[in-house]
Amino acid sequence: MIHQSVEHNNLELGKQLFQSMPDRDVVSWNSMIGGFARIGQYQEALTWFHEMEFSGVSPNALTLLSTLSACASHGALDTGAWIHAYVDKNDMNRDGSLDSSLIDMYSKCGDIDKAVQIFEESTRRDLFTWTSIVCGLAMHGRGEKALHYFSKMKEAQVQPDDVTMVGVLSACAHAGLLDQGWWYFQSMEKVFGLVPKVEHYGGMVDLLGRMGCLKEAYDLIMGMPMEANEIIWGAFLSACRVHNNVELGEVAARRLLGLVPRDPWARVMLSNMYAEEAKWDRSMGLRKEIKKKGLKKSPGCSSIEVNGSVHGFLVGDNSHPCYTEINSMVEKIEKLMRL
């Protein structure tokens, strides 16, 4: 019943059923931890994992998979490293089934060198392990090394999937490898048997945009077999902003506003482009429109992990229980920096 409640996103009922149980085994704990991780409540998933520790119930492989996923998505490196140590101490990864999750966790938490180390020591180099290291390296801007591992993946005769190819195109974008990126994109279907999806078109738009090939990027978008989403038009608008192509920027902004009319970001970007071209009337017109419609950008967010707990901070937010102490320390640091 707990599993069914969690599967249908009724976590409150799941909590009530769990708390009413006289004996809570690893299966019931896994249902709760996995449920919170699945719906994106990663901090809650980690909290339940710590409670499971204190209860004396030992985690199994499924528990660790769910918790590592939560650590990766939440940036909880300390907790992820503790889980890794727990796995090694209890010899829970003999078959290498946790390798891809560990690589993914370390990559997303910022320790790409540790991710590479785990891959090199892995005896189970399947599709998921290869994909994790390729995407991890691409995420960290190490495009050429990611492509090196992709070449070794092909030598090992492991067939890539859609996710692998997203990582490959991202690697080409970070390394500035335009011709190679085009080749991989155009060969997806005939060489790897994969039909390019919207994510792959997005990767090519990003690559073309970074290289300043805005006309080619626009032609690619207009020739897509599916409708371009806000991510693709947003990437294209960003490229237009970087290379200050107002004409195509206007097109991208119109398309983006058609998809997300209440998002002020497109207006801000276009306003900045107008300002650089000294088109002050148009620039101020967009700023006034933002103010008139009461549009607000999503506040910037950062986070830090302290003693296994991840603390998030939003711009302008003073709700943190240690706000006064944090603000006082920031002021002290600013004074020291002025000396």
From TrEMBL:
It comes from the Eukaryota. GO terms for molecular function: RNA binding. It comes from Vitis vinifera. Signal peptide: none annotated. PANTHER family: PENTATRICOPEPTIDE REPEAT-CONTAINING PROTEIN. PPR repeats lie at residues 25-59, 126-160. The lineage of its organism: Eukaryota, Viridiplantae, Streptophyta, Embryophyta, Tracheophyta. InterPro entries: E_motif, PPR_At4g14850-like_plant, PPR_rpt, TPR-like_helical_dom_sf. Keywords: Repeat. The keyword Kinase does not apply. The keyword ATP-binding does not apply. This is Putative pentatricopeptide repeat-containing protein. Pfam families: E_motif, PPR, PPR_2. Belongs to the PPR family. PCMP-H subfamily. One of its GO terms (biological process) is RNA modification.
